[in-house]
Amino acid sequence: MNNINMGNIKILIKGKKALSGSVRISGAKxxxxxxxxxxxxxxxxxxxxxxxxxxxxxxxxKTLQNIGAEGKFSANSIKIKIPEIRSSPVPRNIVETExxxxxxxxxxxxxxxxxxxxxxxxxxxxxxDRNINFHLDGLRKMGAEIDVKDGHIIAKTTGPLKxxxxxxxxxxxxxxxxLLMAAALAEGTTxxxxxxxxxxxxxxxxxxxKMGADIEGINGDILRIEGKSTLTGAVxxxxxxxxxxxxxxxxxxxxxxxxxxxxxxxxxIDSLLDILKQMGxxxxxxxxxxxxxxxxxxxxVDVETRPFPGFPxxxxxxxxxLLTQSHGLSRVKENIFNNRFKHAxxxxxxxxxxxxxGDTAIIRGKTDLAGRGITATDLRASAALVLGGLIAEGExxxxxxxxxxRGYENMPQKLQALGAxxxxxGVGNE
Length: 430
Ligand code: EPZ
Hints:
With about 425 residues, this protein is an alpha+beta fold. The protein has helices at about 30-40, 55-65, 100, 105-115, 135-140, 175-185, 200-210, 240-250, 270-280, 315-325, 340-350, 380-390, 400-405, 410-415, and strands at about 10-15, 20-25, 45-50, 70-75, 75-80, 115-120, 145-150, 150-155, 165, 190-195, 215-220, 220-225, 235, 260, 280-285, 290-295, 300-305, 330-335, 355, 360-365, 375, 395-400, 420-425. It contains 14 helices and 23 strands. The longest helix has 13 residues, at about 380-390. The radius of gyration is 21 Å and the shape is globular. Ligand EPZ binds next to helix 1, helix 3, helix 5, helix 6 and helix 12.
């Protein structure tokens, strides 16, 4: 897949160093992923900037090369086009990690452009059940014949896909993106109801519109798409990553830290900023930056994860680490995924007091943390553990830190620049 040995990557942190200075937010991984998949919809040329150079994106880029993409990924820019689809399955090893869940995003665009797609079935996932039934239901309604066998999804259609009216039974981010892309190249009008509203979907709509798609938002979560027979290439800048933004805002909220988050879009993380205000964190919010500091005395809160604009599941683990430093009992209820508390066990090894009762983490603070060896289980959990290491006394070693590299651009380097004593080992040269 690439020349780093995923299993050997570790992050070493010597905690208790105050963070200060400024940090610039990278482009959003979860916007760039569907936007790279959208390249499949056209034979034209695309130029993307602010693409985060993270492992999940490198895998998606490779996936596109496997189906005939020509291009260049240099620094944070991607120039790419797919003059002709070279039908090839997404190799199983690529589809086994969370990364690969993103490969489901190529299903809609591939069948819409080429009439055939073969994608490995995403397997289980470390954060809980990750169903794709709504993706498949929608594509079937559009006229694709879909078989799921031998670990693969095979989708076929003889003519163009047809416009449909479809209501998602439950909000799904990649489900909305997949059907949106397929509908952009389908024949006739598609109405999608109960769509997810995450900013990454707005950015995808922006890209699709530049490609010539006709998409209109009606009444909040209803989208109307007039299908086109061809779409063009486009030039696009990926929006800033709201989860990276939120992670650094949380990092600045620990006692004694004062940092400025630049290239921020504060309204993407209003739900987090509201919670931090309740906790007593000092926030100065400008149009493109957030200054965050804390003098201690953090108050506990009760929080639930929700689809956007609610509090995001992708910041649940990082907020949990912060709540271990507030005085009193906090509760964090996870409503999106059914197994997203693995970080709690690891944090408890550092000395936190977190109990999991069903879908809720009960956090008793404030606890003093002491560094030791812990293991990252998924991308956002790894960020939560790094935050734990930053506040722990002594050395924390986070094993399986490949997880962090999947979605955070240069996090150890960015934290070093803020004054943290942190290094990553086991990463070769690209
Ligand atoms: C996206 O995953 C993100 N991934 C995830 O980010 C994020 O955690 C998640 O949305 C929720 O915000 C990308 O954008 C690439 P969902 P996705 O479909 O689209 C159920 C990260 O750390 N569901 O919105 O796979 C599903 O089981 C990652 O960056 C169905 O039942 O999530 C889950 O309970 C992790 N049937 C809920 O909906 C379906 O067909 C939400 O999942 C689809 C989903």
